[in-house]
Amino acid sequence: EAGVAQSPRYKIIEKRQSVAFWCNPISGHATLYWYQQILGQGPKLLIQFQNNGVVDDSQLPKDRFSAERLKGVDSTLKIQPAKLEDSAVYLCASSLEAGNEKLFFGSGTQLSVL
Amino acid sequence: AQSVAQPEDQVNVAEGNPLTVKCTYSVSGNPYLFWYVQYPNRGLQFLLKYITGDNLVKGSYGFEAEFNKSQTSFHLKKPSALVSDSALYFCAVRDSGYSTLTFGKGTMLLVSP
Asked: Which of B33, B99, B107 to mutate to test the interface with A (most CBs of A within 10 A)?
C-alpha cells in the first residue's frame, strides 16, 4: 500500500515569510496528525484531525500556524509569518482511527528559516 | 499530564551483543506504551506496543520490550544487535484516557561491526 506522502521535502525561507506543507495520508485512514520535530527532540504534536474535524490543537501556535484537512483526506499546514524557531522537520502521520496507536509517518518536510 | 523520558542520548553496542534502550514514563491512568524507529532520511516506523497483558511484548525486526509497572519503565531490548539496527529510537506514551501520543527525545543506537 502507498505510504503517507508529504511535500515539499525541503524548504528554505526567510523569517517573516509564509510557507505551506502538504500531506496525503494513507487511503482510508480517518485520523491525521501534524508533528513538529526540532533537532535533538522528539516529535511534538501540533494538531490532530479526525476526518475533517480537529480533535486536538492545544499545542498549535494559532497566531502563526494554521491547518486544514480538505474533505477529510489531504491536509495543509501553513506558517505565516515564520520565525527562526520554526526551523524543524514537520511530520505528517495517519492512523485508521483516533486512539489507534499504530501511526504511519511520512518522510517529513525539513524547514529552514533564515 | 503524560510524559516520557529517554535518559540516554546514545547507546553504543557491538554487533552480536545484546542491546537495551531505556525509557521511563509518567501518566495519570493506565499507560499505553510504544516504540518507534527512525532510519536516516525516512519517516518513523512503528516497532511495538504494550496495552495490557504480558509484560514482555515482541515486535518487528526481533525487538522486544519489557513493561515494568513498579519502575514505570518500558525498555527496548534485542538479544543480538545487527549493524542495520543503527537508527534513532523513540519511546512514546499515551494515557488510557487521552488520545494523543507523547514522544521522548530519542536515543541514537549505534551498532559497530
From this structure: B99
